[in-house]
Amino acid sequence: MAYHGGNYHGWQVQENAHTVQAEMEEKLSVMLGKQVSVTGCGRTDTGVHAREFYAHFDLVKPLKDPGDLAFRMNAFLPGDIAVFDIFPVTHDMHARFSAINRTYRYYISREKDPFYRELQFEYTSTLDLEAMQEASRLLLGEKDFTSFSKLHTQTATNICTIKEAFWTAEGHRLIFAISADRFLRNMVRAIVGTLMEIGKGKIKPEDMKKIIAAKDRSRAGFSVPAKGLFLEKVEYKFDA
Question: What's the CATH code of the domain at 132?
Fold first, then answer.
């Protein structure tokens, strides 16, 4: 599935908040005539988008026509949520815990762009892309990323393994791509904000090592707006 996060307080169900999970559970429960709980592959924050997102739900009996349910779900769901496919998996597959890699991209526009203003962060001042690229390489590997995590979360560990982190320029856009086995809350937005501080010359590229080692959120840069962040890809390992 995919969704535009602008109208939602993230994926996960919350009291007195409009979420993507709540929409999915409500619509599935009505269509299947029973209460259905949906588990997502991650917990995207308020305003974050997902271009590729997986979720699972359990049923006692298999669906007769999963493709037809996907078609009817799209007619029932709001226009900012799309279901691409529904298919059976083995009982031990879990949308969140079976994922082995996730890729996010963050989009920055270097000029005013009225057509995509809800889907990117507009920043028209100069950024040193080479310095940002150098600092991005220092993120790679297995590290404790507490310095880029939202405070007071309930995760058992803040250790993540980042496999890719790099910038590309496409026309007037800068795109930051990052892949890891897992991500902490607000992690990508805090990393991008820190890299922008490096691009502005306020922090040296080599200081990224010190920021990571400090395990202190106050040492890193600001968090960029959620609207420029997309969950782009989720990967699973299937047994042959």
Answer: 3.30.70.660
Q: Is 230 helix (H, G, I), strand (E, B) or coil?
A: strand
- Residue 87 domain-assigned? no
Per-residue pLDDT of 76-101, as tens digits, reads 999 999 999 999 999 999 999 999 99
- Respond yes or no: is residue 45 known to be catalytic: yes
208/140 Cα distance (integer angstroms): 11
Extract the tokens encoding 81.
Answer: 């949520």
Compute and round to an integer the Cα radius of gyration of the chain. Answer: 19
Number of alpha carbons in the 13 Å side-chain half-sphere of residue 45: 19
Q: Which of 132, 212, 139, 138 is nearest to 180 (CA)?
A: 139
Say whether pTM exceeds 0.70: yes
Q: Which of 45, 85, 92, 239 is catalytic?
A: 45
Question: For residue 70, what are its two tokens?
Answer: 């996907």
Residue 93 lies in a domain: no
36 Cβ contact list (under 8 Å, min separation 6): 25, 28, 29, 57, 59
Identify whether the C-beta of residue 191 lies closer than 8 Å to the C-beta of residue 167.
no
